[in-house]
Amino acid sequence: MNSVFTQEVPIAWYLLLSAVLFALGVVGFLIKRNLITVFMSIELMLNAVNLSFVTFAHQWHAVKGQIFVFFVMMVAAAEAAVGLAIIIAVFRARATLAVDRIDLMKL
Amino acid sequence: MNAPLHLLLIPLLPLAGFLVNGILGRGMPKWMVTSIGLLAPLAAFLLVLNAASSAFGIGSAATLLPYVETCPIPWINVGMLHVDFSFVLDQLSLVMLLVITGVGFLIHIYSVGYMHDDESYARYFSYLNLFLFFMTVLVLAGNALLMFVGWEGVGLASYLLIGFWFQKKSAADAGKKAFIVNRIGDFGFLIGMFFLLANFGTLTFSGIAAQLTGNPAWQGGILTVIALCLLLGATGKSAQLPLYIWLPDAMEGPTPVSALIHAATMVTAGVYMIARTHVLFDHSPFALGVVAIIGAATALFAATMALVQNDIKRVLAYSTISQLGYMFLGCGVAAYSAAIFHLMTHAFFKALLFLAAGAVIHAIGGEQDLRKMGGLRKKLPATFAVTTVGVLAIGGFFPFAGFFSKDAILYAAFLQGNNGKILWFVGLLTALLTSFYMFRLWYLAFMGEPRGEETHPHSTPASMLVPLFLLALLSIGGGWVGIERFATFLSPAVGASLTSSQASGSHLELILSILAVAVALIGWFIADLLYRQNPSRPSSIAAALPACYSLLAHKYYIDEIYGAVIVKPLLAFSTFVLGWAIDAGLLGGIAWFIGGTATFSGAVLQRWQSGNLRSYAAWLAAGAAAVLLFIVVPWSIVLANLGIHLNVAGH
User: Fold this and answer.
1) Do B609 and A107 touch (CB under 8 A)?
2) In this structure, is the dihedral angle defined by the CA atoms of residues B126, B132, B135 and B140, taken in order, positive or negative?
């Protein structure tokens, strides 16, 4: 029973995937100009973290990590609702979604 | 069994008078102000009389002196420092209290007449009561700190009363001068007190005296330092060399104030303090010698300045300084009882002279210049009579009060070992000068013909005349107690006096007395020669000796010298070094630098706040990365590989 399919995926792979996804999220957040893409990058980071939560929960047989994932998803859903509403409001007001132009709060 | 004497009430009653008149006096009718202002000192005086009668054992068993009354609440109780509100009645403070409240009450009565038309009538009486409060605290205090409270307090009252007519610039300046010069003396007192605490562990006079008498071999050294510090305090308060300069200017105050504070009571606080701490001085012959020299020098120095003064109150002021010099001389030859005796008689006749001068000034409409007086004996016969008594008393003529006390001091000085003869001679010379300048005043004011514009002196009210007559009686009879009895009475408080122990040489004493009276007569004769028989002679003498005369008339230029040597450099130092360099330059510079740094860094950091969301996010990510790097990397191992060893706790 030494086939590829019965072998468990090593934990490091999950964590590596999580780190890669998180880094992609950070980079996307920093370099993308479109507000919606930025928003999606945030979601990506959140889900990267969720992945590592689940990984560790599985590894240590601790259910807390999985519960945490539900919390994060819930917050992300709420954030998506509020964030999309803000994006629509911004677009209506400024007719653009370029983050560089939305800098009214600077001193 | 001692009956309670209510010592605490003696200061507290005048304090109550001060509070009532000071706070409510403006709105009260005059008769209420007067009655409160007079009742407080009267009640205090009656309490003192009660204490005196119980001390002398009149009516009941004698109260044993010293009688101590301590407030149950401790004042200061920190570490080794224990200070109570303790009031001590012994022979010394009893004599002082009698003088202060007695003469003080008379002067209060006099003030009713003198200050009648002043618009700040209530303020005047509240200050006067405040003075009595502090002065009785000073005298009754059982420890140096409480005495210092009184000491500072009388300084405050003196300041307030000298500058009573503060609308007049010279009066306000004189008040400030008195206060500031006294600060120098107070500084000495404070330092002396610190030394006392450090060396004796207590500030109570009885505790200090007990330690010193238990250790007679302890001489000089730190005791000399303490005694000299206290002496500095005494010279400030009692207007001795070199701090006498404030007293002549203090004459800007109302004349009853000059009589009460600057002649009879407050200025004698220095003498009282030396007598109170006499054990210290007894253990330091050097300090005693300094006291004697300062006393004799001040007596002579001030007397010479009194010779040429034309302001009637200034003559009396210099005469006060001179007489205080006698008291210091008495203290300096360890004849404390003689000094206190002179203090008492001086309080009588000098208060009398000041009040009489006040009556003259009051009668002729505020004129103080002797050259514009003259011939007042016909217009003010009562004042003339009492002034004559005062002049004879201060001149030391038998049988007036001054004769006995001055004689006691001179005799004690004569008997004192090494330099006693010199001190005695200086004292005798001063007696000659005293007699001369007092008769000069007498002739100029009362004899001859009126010199000023024709004035119509208005009569002196009874409230002013009664105290004058009472003081005149005291000036005549006050000396008849006699130094022997007085010294025996005081000896428990100030130690056995030289005079009483060596009274056997009474032939010598008689000769010295005759000499003193003869000298006083000579002074009178010279004054008579110059100011009655040949009134033009004084100015011709002055013209013949211009340098000498202007030196005296300008008071040896001491004020100018102090101004040039101390005041001007101090002012310049304050203006340029402290004001410009330290305050504006250093402190202002530091403040400017700190403020500038904040503004500048704010301006730099402001650029960071770009409003660009992505730049914020980038900084956030960079910060998170830095924290992560710090946590994840095993720094001690990395550094150890680089050859750097951190000195972490645990190694």
Assistant:
1) yes
2) negative
Share the mean pLDDT of chain B: 86
Q: For residue range A37-89, what is the model confidence (pLDDT) as tens digits?
A: 999 999 999 999 999 999 999 989 989 999 999 999 999 999 999 999 999 99
For residue B171, what is the enclosing H or E element? Answer: helix B169-200
Interchain contact, B617 vs A107, CB within 8 Å: no
Taking CA atoms, what residue in A is nearest to B611?
A: A106
User: What's the gap in Å between the CA of A49 and the closest CA on chain B?
Assistant: 15
Task: Please give the C-alpha separations between residue B177 and each of B169, B172, B247, in angstroms, as whole numbers.
Answer: 12, 9, 9
| CA atoms of B217 and B282, how far apart (whole Å) | 12
Whether residue B96 has pLDDT greater than 80: yes
Q: Is the pTM for the entire model greater than 0.80? A: no
CA angle B487, B490, B495 (to 5 degrees): 90
Buried-exposed string B348-380: b where 16+ CB fall within 10 A, e elsewhere? bbbbbbbbbbbbbbbbbeebbebebbbebbebb
- CA–CA separation, B608 and B615 (whole Å): 9
**Alpha-carbon distance B581 to B570, whole Å?**
15
Q: How many CB atoms lie within 10 A of CB B277?
A: 23
Sign of the C-alpha dihedral, residues B552, B558, B560, B561?
Answer: positive
In the DSSP assignment, the letter for residue A34 is B
Alpha-carbon gap: B616 to the closest alpha carbon of chain A (Å): 9
pLDDT band at A105 (very low <50, low <70, confident <90, very high): low
Q: Where are the beta strands (DSSP E) in A17-72?
A: none
DSSP state of A61: T
Query: Is B117 within 8 Å of B86 (Cβ atoms)?
Result: no
ipTM of the prediction: 0.78
With residue B67 as reference, give the H or E element that holds it: strand B67-78
CB atoms within 10 A of CB A89: 10
Residues 6+ positions from A96 with CB-CB distance below 8 Å: A102
Contact B611 A106 (CB under 8 A): yes
**CB-CB neighbors (< 8 A) of B621 in chain A:** 26, 30
Q: Which residues of B touch A38 (CB under 8 A)?
A: 613
Is there a contact between B349 and B355 (Cβ–Cβ < 8 Å)? no
Chain A's closest residue to B624, CA to CA, is A26
List chain B residues with CB under 8 Å of A39. Answer: none
Distance from CA of A7 to the nearest CA of B (A): 31
**Shortest Cα distance, chain B CAs vs residue A102, angstroms:** 8
- Closest residue on chain B to A27 (Cα): B618
Q: What are phi and psi of B84, to 5 degrees?
A: -115, 160
Contact B380, B460 (CB under 8 A): yes
The shortest CB-CB distance from B612 to any of A29, A38, A103 is to A103
Contact A30 B618 (CB under 8 A): yes
Choose the closest CB to A106 out of B609, B618, B621.
Answer: B609
